[in-house]
Amino acid sequence: MSAWPELKRGDNGHLLWAGADTVELARRFGTPLYVYDEERIRQACRHFLRAVSPPAPEMPPGQIFYAGKAFLTLALVRLIREEGLGLDVVSGGELYTALAAGFPPEKIAFHGNNKQPREVEEAVRAGVGLFVADNFRELDLLEEVLSRQGRSQDLLLRVAPGVEAHTHEYVLTGQQDSKFGFDLASGQLVEAARRVAKSPVLRFRGLHCHIGSQILDRQPYLEAARVMVGAMARVKEEAGLETKILDMGGGFGIHYLPEDHPPDPAQVIRAVAEEVARGCRERGMDIPALAFEPGRSVVGEAALALYTVGAVKRVPGLRTYVSVDGGMGDNPRPALYGASYWACPAARPSAPPEEEVRIVGRFCESGDVLIPRIEMPRLEPGEVVAVFSAGAYQYSMASNYNRCPRPAVVLIGEGGKPEVIVARESYHDLLSHDRVPPRLR
Prior knowledge:
Elements: E1 8-9, E2 15-17, E3 20-21, H1 22-29, E4 33-37, H2 38-51, E5 63-67, H3 74-83, E6 86-89, H4 92-100, E7 108-110, H5 117-126, E8 130-133, H6 136-149, E9 153-160, E10 182-183, H7 188-198, E11 202-208, H8 219-239, E12 245-247, H9 265-283, E13 289-292, H10 296-299, E14 303-315, E15 319-324, H11 333-337, E16 343-345, E17 355-360, E18 369-376, E19 384-387, E20 408-412, E21 418-422, H12 427-431
Parallel strand pairs: 4-20, 5-6, 5-13, 6-7, 7-8, 8-9, 9-10, 9-11, 11-12, 12-13, 15-17
Antiparallel strand pairs: 1-2, 2-3, 4-14, 14-15, 14-19, 16-19, 17-18, 20-21
């Protein structure tokens, strides 16, 4: 328990989350179950906003866009709006969710490396505040749609800065060999900027980069800042465009394991701001407003996943397999890129460890492993296990593999009251989009 000082136990010894008994939550709502702490989300939002208000004395106030891909529901959109953040969406579905929840379109930034024509139409029609262009085809699509609708659009150009963060290769996004952004080294960025400068419907507002996810070191951010200031200078010199907004993306790491030590995002933001300001002064350029796009660092540590233990298989001399009623269907991250997690029994979180186990899922894949190795007390069928830092890129990546319904999600607000924000899927939901041709009836 000392590794997680924020964890609390009730009088009965059960793990509490946002004041609620996790064993009782599992009994009431079933498992698998995702449980979000509303106050932790709000605190994270406020922490980021304070960090950019402004990030450095000589800078204009910055902007924070919540990265909706981490986790997005109608309720969460309302919460993000109340806290005053902007919203980063990467698909027509995320945009639709935001608009359905009443989020102001002028505070939306629309990302994505292969936006579909229909999505570009929807974004322009909605009046999104910023369009983050990723490639030349998008510039073609956007100009065509804007001309047809008689509109113009504020725009950021996404840059592939050639900076590699120290993270898994599947979540690296800033290196030169990437599907994302206009390449800086080969001159693609300058070519794109010149084109935007000539466009009657595209309004250049600045540059964007994103170097990766779950970054536990601030150094890659500082390197990216230096590169992006250089990119600002090239765009100004060779295309005559002044960068008003420099969006440095997100990727701030969180605690997944007791030994993780992510830097405070506010400290990273301040360091980046100082680096950008210094570089701009040296080049005689105006200092832009900074923008950041946290997702994982807003919701990741604010949620846990609850599972019920089923089969326990002890193989003498090898290992103990503890099977739970979820797995890669609701959390594919361990199978995709070896994501790590920490867990404990919900009814006895401080019980001393008795054996090393492998926590596995219920899906028909040998790779369906949630936690490869963890010391646990002896677990028995029917016990509830809590997996921490489960708020980002789990439910949003969930599937119906093996025709399993997706879990429910509850949000715990003031006073420890849990409220369902995503209903558990039913078997009927699984069939709701199936169609049988007449010849097979």
